[in-house]
Design goal:
It is a single chain. With 228 residues, the protein is an alpha+beta fold. Strands 1-2-3 form a 3-stranded antiparallel beta sheet. Strand 1 and strand 2 form a beta hairpin. Helix 4 packs antiparallel against helix 5 and helix 5 crosses helix 6. It is rod-shaped. The two termini are 69 Å apart.
Length: 228
């Protein structure tokens, strides 16, 4: 009864009909080979084949063939079939959605990386010119202001590098760069750009390094600064 529903043929119409008439042309040679191997006694795993129903619509049948030999009878093949058209369609849709999401994610990462590079170029120019100015003779007050400008520019450049690092993380390419550095100095550099806006709000931003923290360590100061 299930075969009648799937194919549209009644039992009377199906019995005696060549099996090749029910198989899509693209899979007829495949099915003939499987029949030959099964009749030869070979174990054949489940396989899929496209079938053509009476109303000419195509559906995919998953078959598990088995050789049957009865005394005095020619060998025959029995098979349990299951319509897997919906399952395969859903799998294709999921794969298509997965590929689309991956493509969108790659495009986003590439866009972020490109924009970060575009912003980093003028930032390096600002920092370079600020360093040149600091090497010239300046009044103390202007030198103090310019030093804060450079510190903020350095902080902004580090933020841009953080964005690039995020793109690397998504691509699984983030690496550590261990070097010797002073922990207290690194903390001071990390917090200095935040001190000015804190002061403008009537707050004082301070830090304390515990005594048990080594003065000098080997690690990646940029990653530690990101964490802080």
């Amino acid at each position: 009864h299930a075969a009648e529903r799937m194919t549209g043929y009644t039992v009377a119409e199906a019995v005696g009909r060549p099996l090749s008439e029910l198989v899509a042309p693209i899979h007829r040679l495949k099915l003939a080979d499987i029949v030959k191997r099964t009749l030869a006694g070979e174990e054949v795993a489940r396989f899929e084949v496209d079938m053509v129903a009476r109303d000419r619509h195509v559906f995919t049948l998953e078959l598990a063939p088995r050789l049957t030999v009865a005394p005095g009878e020619p060998p025959s093949i029995q098979a349990i079939g299951r319509d897997v058209s919906d399952r395969n369609r859903i799998a294709r849709e999921l794969q298509s959605a997965k590929e689309a999401a991956e493509a969108a994610n790659r495009a986003k990462s590439e866009f972020v990386a490109n924009m970060s590079h575009e912003v980093r170029t003028p930032m390096n120019g600002i920092i370079g010119m600020t360093e040149l100015l600091l090497e010239s003779e300046l009044p103390d007050e202007q030198r103090q202001y310019l030093t804060m400008v450079k510190s903020s520019a350095d902080a902004l450049l580090r933020v841009i590098n953080d964005v690039l690092d995020f793109s690397k993380m998504e691509a699984g390419k983030l690496e550590l760069d261990p070097v010797p550095f002073n922990v207290a100095d690194m903390v001071a550099d990390a917090l200095q750009p935040l001190a000015v806006p804190a002061h403008q709000k009537g707050l004082e931003l301070s830090y304390r390094v515990a005594n048990e923290v080594p003065e000098a360590v080997v690690g990646d100061p940029e990653r530690l600064r990101q964490i802080i």
